[in-house]
Fold each of these.
Amino acid sequence: MLRIPRHIRHFKSVLATGLVLSLPLSGVGAQVTTGSGSTVPLPVRPLKVVDVAFIDTTAHACTDFFQFATGAWLARDTIPAAYSSSGVARDMGDRNELVVRSVLDDVLARRASLPAGGTPRKLATFYGTCMDSSAAESAGLTPLRPVLSAIDGITTRAALVERVAELQTQGIDIGFRFGPEVGHHDAVHYVASIYQGGLGLPDRDYYFTKGPAADSTRRAFVDHVARLFELAGMPNGPEARSVAERVLAFETSLAAASMTRVQQRDPAATDHLLSVAQLRALAPHLAWPDYFRAVGQTTSIAQLNVGMPDFVHRVDSLVADAPLADWRAYLRYHALAEAAPWLSTPFVQENFAFTSRFTGAKALLPRWKRCLRASDALLGEALGETYVGKTFSPDARARAKAVIDDIRAAFGERLRKLSWMSDSTRTQALDKLAKMGEKVGYPERWRDYGKLQVEDGSFALNVMRANAFEWRRTINRPGAPVDTTEWSMTVPTVNAYYDPSKNEMVFPAGALSPQTFDATADDAANYGSLGGSWAGHELTHGFDDEGRHFDAHGNLRDWWTPADSLRFTQQAQLIVNQFNGFVAVDTLHVNGRLTLGENIADFGGVVTAYDALQRALARNGRPGLIEGYTPEQRYFLGYAQSWREHTRPEQLRTRVTTDPHAPARWRANAPLMNSDAFAKAFGCKPGDPMVRPPELVPHIW
């Protein structure tokens, strides 16, 4: 697909195995059985959904609940050098990656005996070529030379368009992003679409923000581009820097026509269905028939969704007027930047030196982790198919699904009781809820990798081949029925998402293990974590400031009465105001408008899962105190500890601009500040920092 769904729980793409591990509740280890029958120890401390050892008993729950729930852990935590943060995501990811590594090492050891052309053999070759660091050092830039030579050979505008198309099919982000997506107004069919892209800095704002820090970042970008050019053979010094300056100027022109992330939050703002004739009128200098042919588009395209018409027009003007030398420099930089992590050490180190400005990481991840994550990103279902059948627990899947179904029922009850919503809107909201799909664990049908080419030799070339395979797999989807079985996140991912175009929630198996969920844990803990910050969160995305614009079938349609829409917007503004007041890092405040959807989802998740817990307690009976806490207290501890995170300031600064998710402290605290149930559970009083004045408390879901 062109884009992953907008609404994902923020765990920064940390890989997990897609497994529910049988980790003991006490002790320090576990083991997994590999395909060859051997067992691999997992020397890690088991995680708990609620861990009282993390609680800072010197803090007051009614002052800063995040500090209370996680402060003891924060006080002793040190972020490992290779990470931008530590916490739940790293803990779950590190544990699960040990299992994934055992699977990959096992298949690699058996590679010679595996059937040629089979998926396991391809997976072994892919991972093996990545792990072969000696080959990467010996090859240097050699794998990329044909690509660079082709770029250097661009001497006409027609050749430029064809080269742009070819590079896009190899996974290089240049100019605009083209591909299929679910139709906004016909959600049962795919439509071709075009969106903005092609920037080397994390966001368009980096090109225009004023001040010494922003100036330093742009200078560092030019230095980085120049250094890559020098490593690729351009003479050191003024020439490389002069060409790098032109790349910055070129990208600044693209950025000037790019929509901000806040602007993109309005689905209507990126909904522009055009005919091919209208596309040609918008961008007459792009030879669209030649472009479509070059990217492998063989089916007829009647219409396209041009998400950002101004951006496409800007690219067209650059195709017409920008010097071809500037285009060659721009394409050359992006080809080098895309391949750099998989080339020889000087390229790898330069790539890390630049990206670490935004992450704060102090060292590279071990090679096996980098290769493992690349395997998951590009051959995720090949990896999932190999191991999920061995280690994913059907019982845990059923228990997790029961919690999710309870959340759905509780949200329905809240809808029925909403005083501000009219019956007309309520009827359609309940219909959307009833039709909302859910996928738990893993796909029912695994991807066919029969047409994927993987070869011995350069891993950088195998990455290009894997990207080209994925491009070919989907490029001719426009007009075809939507594949409702497909997942937009791999099974080994510690994350979840809601897709408004399919009206479905998806929970990969990688998320369904402690600390998120434990089939042996008490209901209060599981409902606080899996129920509140996962299932309730994703479900509420269907009714947040973006999701509410899509109907039960995934079509972009206004099904709200004007009065209800106004009431929703007024209540949502209270959440915007609340988050605008929070400091993310240094003097930088959270952007309440950018983070609104996630903040609504967090609030909806907390209140809905709490209702579901009360239903479960009424059904199953109330336990006594567990580790000194009531069910209600353990519920809120489970919720807050699910956001346990310690993040480097460099990463926080980047996220203020780029991330629709607020920092973990505020995701834990803010919804609870608006909760009477939380105040009652911990005896908080009006005037306490964790209790907001009633007139500032939103009443949405």
Note: The mean pLDDT is 93.
Amino acid sequence: MNVAYSAHASAAAILFAVAVTAGLAQKTYPSQQIKIICAFPAGGGTDLTARLLGEQLQKILGQTVVIENRTGASGMIGTGAVAKSPADGYTLLVASGEMAVNPHLYPKMAYDLDKDLQPITLLVKVPNVLAVNMDVPAKNVAELIAYAKQNAGKLTFSSSGVGNPQQLTGELFNKLAGVQIRHVPYKGAAPQIADVAGKHITMTFVSIGAAKPFIDSQRIRAIAVTSLTRVGALPDVPAIAEYPPLAGFELVNFFGFLGPAGMPDPVLRRLNAAAVQTMKMPDLVTKFRAMGFGPAPTTPEEFRQFIRTETAKFGKIIVEAGVKLTE
């Protein structure tokens, strides 16, 4: 037998088998119920995003989509469960920006974000709003910075926990504005806002959806948003970046859609196409923007690069601010 011919035939057979398998995966997926694990509690922004996504995926893909909240450890329990699941496209993940923070705070993680998970698409970017209690005389960023310098070491800002994107936004603000505003962590948005409204805390970086009822009822005052440009839910509130000395300031949370590493490419592409289609639906875009979320669907490759960029950005802030979980 001709050895070269035999090797060539074997290689061709392998390629043919791979092509057939990929084709079958594309034609038959999904053939059963899909489970999306939300790494955060029911009722929050991540959960709401997962449920709106799942509702539309069910219609587009023609299979039942269920949402399971598997919470704890800053999203690492739910994320780890997906990382260890079969790479068949039937166990997926919706998680938040904590995924880009955790590697810098937890030296021993049960999974490697870059190696064990397959990004599908970025879903939304979630800017925060910088808001102050009603006794603070500042009405804009310039006045707030001046007030903080006049009261060095006396002011406080709240977030919903140590090391989350809200705290890191505050630490970045401290550095770029040249001020020292002390961080006070809370367990969730409700208490972090309540203590600003109650004038126990000077200011907060918090999600727009959680803050808007307090802003509308004039229990706290919105100073600026943390996105590069203004947000439709608060059109009259400027971006921090509009203050010339802080031009370019941007730090936002995000929610994304991922699966286990190793999913067949046709399955990955089908999930990406369905999720992108969902995130571009006009009625959903309107809902998300009303909550202060900015729909921002991507390709899997773009989302992977986005995660890497945000991970590096958050890591730099954590190191420079000396953020530790024992705070």
Note: The first helix runs from residue 3 to 28.
Amino acid sequence: MQHVHSARRWLLLALTLLSACAAAEPSPTRSAGRVSHDAQSGVFGGFLAGRFALSEADAPVASSEFLRALAARPDDPELLRQAFIATLVAGRTEALQLARKLPDSQAAQLLLGQAEARAGRWQAAEQRFVGLPRQGPTQLLQPLLVAWAQHGDGRTDAALATLRPLADGPRFRSVYALHAALIADQAGRTAEANKFYRQAQLEYGGMNLRLAQVLASAQMRHGHAAEAQRILGELATSAPDIALAVPSLMAASASPAVPRAADGIAEAYLALAASVRAQDAGDFAMLLLRLALDLRPDLTPARLLAADQLENQRHLDNALQILAPVSNDDPLIAVVRLERVGLAERLGHTEDSMHDLQRLARDYPESPVPAMREGDLMRSRQRFAEAIAAYDRAIARIKTPQPTDWLVYYDRGICYERSRQWQQAEADFKQALTLAPDQPFVLNYLGYSWADMGENLTQARAMIDRAVQRRPDDGAIVDSLGWVMLRQGEIADAVRTLERAVELDPEDASINGHLGDAYWAAGRKLEAVYQWRRALTFHPEPDDAAKIEAKLQGGQQSTAVSDQ
């Protein structure tokens, strides 16, 4: 199969962070008269409206509805908790007032602690943070917050003493080492900071945006501009969109990435948000990101992470809103503009997105990225001629192709193949493999295409075998292996392999159709018919649907292998 490179609800916030949550609706033990009064006063309606809005990630509406209900019944503990969560996620000032009424809420204590820190009352902040439990979601966070409060109070030795054993401990060493480095750096303890920076870089293994910013800043401020450039370049290699921002990130590296102790608290929230989001705890991550942005509104990596989470939950307007405050002089503004384009396109504003990408191309005349994104947009709309033209412009800006440039040739090759220009498509796929010989998507696409045409079957099999080795649980690639086996007459192996592909991707029309072909070739005709009918339920492309219908009608079943 040709492989084209391509939630939990907000209500769980209350269950995750509030230590004393009751049921998410008024108690059924209340009298009928009380319920009737609530309905008349709008309390119950506001509660339900707020709860629905929160389930749809519409925190602004949820907060307004819960506050309206709470105004009518201010002593209701459940309304108070729900209103607090909603106002906190919405970034409203009322959250702090409500937090003071929730002594048993971990989230409220976090907000109150950072309010003390922002006011410079560091010992009071430390007391709040010390009271947080060292278990559950705050297990990683609590010592970081305590250390930053100690450092903010001028007790850097105590702060480092809090983090040092954890940096050598069994879990989260990279995060603790990085924050120890930032504290030592702020205190002017260069040698100690560098030691912790090196440990953090080693423990993290790979590079991420915030780590790269912090490390580049440390190198730049100590006179190692070449190393700062190398760090940012490594990041751009793994995340091509970041390449647009490298010059501005390099310029910003002359200043500390985390200049104040309060900023360190925001960094702690961001670190934990990134960690728990990777563990499918997106709702908790969003709350942490809101806390980070409350302390440091200009923490753009937090906005990008929040926007990505909202996009994954299909709340595209909210994602655009959280990116709106990013200023045009922000070092990451190019990345933010690309994200806005993608969100606008998903909202159906294709032409507006095209114009924005063209403006980006003018603003960054040496970068191929805007034109690549324009090509992606056109390809997703099956406007292949326009996509090819955009990829042509992107390739024209690549002076010397590097291994990371395989993607633009691969994407253009797909457009050529889909528009039935196979000679050009094949040339692009081969160029992509010249740049990245082990890239499984390219190996699969070219190998499958050859197998589908009955050409170069031995070479196609070898390429798809390599792709499967690199992505053994990718249903589309395993399907390609089964398909080339079928083409080579290895029917029993093809059946087993295609059954495995269907297990991996059970609702893919093409894979199910191929399994039907294999069953037919094996003489298992009833199973083949069943599988073809099943494939039709998954809405195949019109051409593929017509082929399956022809097989079902009996006219071309005997050529099930050769007519694909």
Note: The two ends are 12 Å apart (CA to CA).
